[in-house]
């Protein structure tokens, strides 16, 4: 059934790094990180976050890429191939997790598409009249509109995945990631040169160690895992397309560096503008779709900056969604299905699964006290991702043969990996323990 020889691969290491960094850089970086940092002690939080990424994030990502490259299959078959039938459910859970994440990620992706188009036309006008809250409320409570744009977003995602690893994912990320950096730089320069920008930078970065508690460490751990896209098999399947000769260790360090740098820079883009115009610092959709447009309305050249801003969000979301779609598509491709057909079928199924999420925004569908879309997010972020990531670490640390792991990590001894023993200790003990803590403290319905 599975022909490994014909398996696609990335054309270059930089292609892999940019694709995986694209998967990691997403809404988590742009709308969650700055706010969590600002609220949790500024530079003090940043310091803790970096410690966690370096110690735990890099460790866990390396484990995921390594499993992927060793197995050279989709997550489910990789686990079965390397660890036997009893490990297959972990891989299947990973694929299911990406399926669910994409079902609601595409709903938000659709909002971004809508706002990107609106920023060319009447968004700034509405914002000037103080109507962004109304416009946003009217849009999200109109299911047919939301579903339409969700479909557009899924279609674009599918169009990239359709062309395969090298021709679709790698090629598009090599264009989109530099675009993302450029857009951020333009927006940061605009933001920090506004009069009054300094108070925003102060809110964001002023170190306040008195705000650091055990909760801060937990917030940093949870955010770190989410931001690096760990525990969903997305990084794993990209690893399975990485040629055997490429250096896993330095690639993972670069991916983690890019993800952290973008998260940090997002704060420098948002807060100076928020404070310069006396708005409220906040996180999430409210900030992006309600607050920020009003800031652009007050800025000269606001339309141009609004277009760049929503383009940035679109690129960040798209490079994440293509990795999410590839997880399910890759499964069917490994089982012999034509890539184009596999892409269209999985994209259509995910789109349909997302419809209840789209509906739930108008207040209809609830599970317990949560909107459907919230409940789906809770299931993936707080339960499935941490558990899958923990099993990845345990798998590498305790199940796989240590010699084989070493050979894989060093490309048969050709690549130096001086801290291999330390990394093994981290994978065996520190990372699973840290993840378990996030898991149990995150369980709040
Ligand atoms: N890391 C993404 C972000 O920061 C979100 C995400 C979480 C993700 N898990 C994922 C993306 C798995 C792709 C695959 O927004």
Structural class: mainly alpha
Measured by DSSP, the beta-strand proportion falls in under 5%
Low-pLDDT segments: none
Output mean pLDDT. 92
Q: Mind describing the biggest β-sheet?
A: 2 strands, antiparallel
- Specify Rg, calculated over alpha carbons: 21 Å
Number of helices: 19
Helix content: over 70%
Query: Based on CA inertia axes, which overall geometry fits?
Result: globular
- Please give the number of β-strands: 2
Oligomer: single chain
Structure summarized in a few sentences:
This protein is mainly alpha-helical and 445 residues long.
Descriptive notes:
With 445 residues, the protein is an all-alpha fold. The chain contains 19 helices and two strands. It has helices spanning 13-24, 27-39, 43-71, 75-83, 88-120, 123-128, 132-140, 143-162, 164-192, 197-205, 214-227, 234-240, 248-276, 285-298, 302-334, 339-360, 372-399, 402-409, 420-442, and strands at 366-367, 370-371. Strands 1-2 form a two-stranded antiparallel sheet. The longest helix has 33 residues, at 88-120. The two termini are 42 Å apart. The model has no long low-confidence stretch (mean pLDDT 92).
């Amino acid at each position: 059934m599975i022909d490994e020889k014909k398996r696609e691969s990335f054309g270059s290491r930089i292609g892999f790094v940019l694709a995986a960094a694209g998967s990691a850089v997403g809404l988590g970086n742009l709308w969650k990180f700055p706010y969590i940092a600002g609220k949790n002690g500024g530079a003090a939080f940043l310091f803790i976050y970096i410690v966690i990424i370096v110690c735990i994030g890099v460790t866990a990502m390396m484990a995921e890429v390594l499993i992927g490259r060793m197995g050279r299959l989709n997550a489910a078959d990789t686990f079965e191939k390397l660890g036997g039938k009893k490990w297959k459910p972990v891989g299947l859970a990973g694929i299911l997790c990406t399926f669910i994440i994409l079902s609601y990620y595409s709903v938000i992706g659709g909002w971004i598409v809508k706002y990107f188009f609106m920023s060319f036309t009447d968004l700034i006008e509405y914002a000037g009249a103080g109507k962004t809250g109304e416009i946003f409320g009217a849009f999200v409570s109109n299911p047919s509109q939301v579903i339409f744009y969700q479909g557009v977003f899924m279609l674009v995602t599918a169009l990239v995945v359709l062309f395969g690893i090298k021709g679709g994912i790698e090629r598009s990320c090599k264009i989109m990631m530099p675009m993302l950096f450029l857009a951020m730089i333009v927006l940061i320069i605009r933001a920090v040169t506004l009069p009054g920008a300094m108070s925003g930078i102060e809110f964001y970065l002023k170190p306040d160690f008195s705000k650091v508690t055990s909760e801060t460490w937990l917030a940093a751990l949870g955010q770190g895992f989410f931001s690096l896209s760990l525990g969903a098999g997305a990084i794993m399947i990209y690893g399975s397309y990485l040629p055997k000769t490429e250096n896993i260790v330095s690639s993972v360090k670069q991916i983690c560096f890019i993800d952290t740098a973008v998260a940090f820079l997002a704060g420098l883009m948002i807060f100076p503008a928020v404070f310069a115009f006396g708005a409220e610092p906040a996180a999430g959709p409210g900030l992006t779709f309600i607050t920020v447009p009003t800031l652009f309305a007050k800025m000269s050249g606001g339309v141009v900056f609004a277009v760049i801003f929503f383009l940035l969000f679109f690129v960040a979301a798209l490079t994440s969604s293509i990795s999410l779609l590839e997880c399910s598509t890759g499964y069917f491709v490994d089982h012999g299905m034509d890539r184009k057909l596999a892409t269209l079928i999985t994209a259509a199924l995910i789109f349909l699964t997302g419809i209840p999420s789209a509906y739930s925004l108008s207040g209809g569908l609830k599970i317990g006290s949560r909107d459907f879309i919230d409940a789906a997010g809770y299931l993936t972020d707080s339960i499935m991702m941490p558990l899958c990531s923990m099993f990845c670490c345990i798998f590498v640390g305790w199940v796989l043969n240590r010699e084989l792991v070493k050979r894989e990590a060093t490309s048969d001894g050709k690549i130096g990996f001086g801290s291999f023993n330390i990394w093994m200790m981290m994978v065996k003990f520190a990372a699973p323990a840290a993840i378990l803590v996030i898991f149990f403290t995150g369980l709040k319905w």
